[in-house]
Design a protein that fits this description.
With 331 residues, this protein is an alpha/beta fold. It has helices at residues 11-22, 39-48, 62-70, 86-91, 93-113, 147-165, 199-207, 235-248, 268-276, 303-308, 317-328, and strands spanning 2-6, 26-31, 53-56, 76-79, 118-124, 170-176, 178-180, 214-217, 229-230, 232-234, 255-260, 266-267, 285-288. The chain binds nicotinamide-adenine-dinucleotide (NAD). Nicotinamide-adenine-dinucleotide is lined by residues 6-7, 9-13, 30-36, 58-60, 80-84, 99, 103, 122, 124, 176, 178-179.
């Protein structure tokens, strides 16, 4: 397929393009590099051994985007471009609404005008909020609690309305749980633009000595060891979900929202112990009180992804921890 990828220099976009090229798809990618680096584009080409067209462009730039889309007969859009920090979206909501919603509106408007009818949208488990009992199913009520999550719900709703109003338009919202790990080559991985508060990067920074200690928020949850449980998914499994999703456009459905998670939850202490099993020194941690609004357990029901996308995860927790550390500690 000829794929148009937004946010192609980012963490997930770069891994997707490398694997999509290797599978024989043609890729045209854009990114304004607001949270990523131009070097990633060369690395994608190196990993895949295949060239592709890349444009440094903000997707809010309608004229620029139109020029690229008009020149190509696109089969499907894979829309990764967005800002993604939940804390930053709370302190600066307008930045998130402006970038994530304007970018999507411009892109979707051009898709309508130019009759590009298939889109995969990067949504997020954050659309469910924090009050549901896991496993989380796709038909649960959406209760976003941050501006970031709101932008995902609003974009999903816009896509739903477009599938109702344009006969041929098809949209697939993929709701990611917590992607971790890196490419086998160690050429691609996550390099957050602002310091990440996510568990894996924080554990790696403690392991490397950059941070003194990991704070674990909550030791009295109703989980096997009292610490919070989440669903982590290896980046290569997440990407293979997208590649399977490209076949979804051949079915009769107009729109679906599908969880991409392993369906298995791990506690913070499970992850710490897994890292400790191969690190020279154990991870220092302190048990702190719960953070307001943090639920005890969140993991996906991924049966819809298994059925509709014929997709399964293959990486273990060990792979996720090893690869995250190998990426973090690379030369
Ligand atoms: P990332 O920050 O690494 O990549 C996003 C890319 O989009 C960056 O390269 C950035 O420069 C680009 N971008 C942002 N706004 C743009 C604009 N207006 N025009 C052009 N390019 C723009 O993030 P990621 O982890 O690769 O996430 C990709 C998508 O997946 C995002 O939509 C994110 O919300 C979603 N998602 C990510 C996670 C996660 O934990 N990584 C979880 C759930 C959902």
């Amino acid at each position: 397929m000829k794929l148009f990828v937004t946010g192609g220099a980012g963490y997930i976009g770069s891994h997707f393009i490398a694997d999509a090229l290797s599978e024989g798809h043609e890729v045209i990618a854009v990114d304004n590099l607001i949270t990523s680096h131009i070097q990633t584009i060369e690395r994608i080409k190196q990993v895949a051994g295949i060239d592709f067209a890349f444009y440094e462009l903000d997707i809010c730039d309608e004229q620029g985007l139109r020029k690229i889309l008009e020149q190509n007969q696109i089969d499907a859009v894979v829309h990764f471009a967005a800002l993604k920090s939940v804390p930053e979206s709370i302190s600066n909501p307008l930045k998130y609404y402006k970038n994530n919603l304007t970018g999507s509106m411009v892109l979707f408007g051009l898709m309508k005008t130019l009759k590009i009818h298939n889109i995969i949208f990067s949504s997020s488990a954050s659309v469910y909020g924090s009050s549901h009992k896991s496993p989380i199913k796709e038909d649960f009520l959406l209760k976003p609690i941050s501006p970031y999550a709101q932008t995902k719900v609003i974009t999903e709703n816009i896509l739903r309305d477009m599938t109702s109003s344009i006969k041929e338009f098809k949209a697939l919202n993929l709701r990611y749980f917590n992607p971790v790990g890196c490419h086998d080559s160690l050429l691609l991985g996550e390099s957050p633009a602002i310091e990440s508060t996510n568990l894996f990067p924080v554990i790696c920074s403690v392991a490397s000595g950059e941070k003194e200690c990991l704070s674990i928020f909550g030791k009295d949850y109703d989980t096997h060891d009292g610490t919070p449980v989440r669903d982590y998914i290896h980046i290569s499994d997440l990407v293979s979900g997208h590649l399977s999703a490209l076949n979804w456009f051949k079915n009769d459905k107009k729109i679906s929202s599908i969880n991409l998670g392993t369906g298995q939850g791990y506690s913070v202490l499970d992850i710490v112990n897994q890292f400790n099993s191969f690190l020279d020194h154990p991870i220092k941690f302190e048990l702190s009180p719960r953070r307001y609004g943090d639920p005890g357990i969140i993991y996906a029901d991924n049966s819809l992804a298994n059925e509709e996308l014929q997709w399964k995860c293959s990486k273990s927790l060990q792979d996720m921890c090893h690869d995250s550390w190998n990426w973090y500690s690379r030369d």
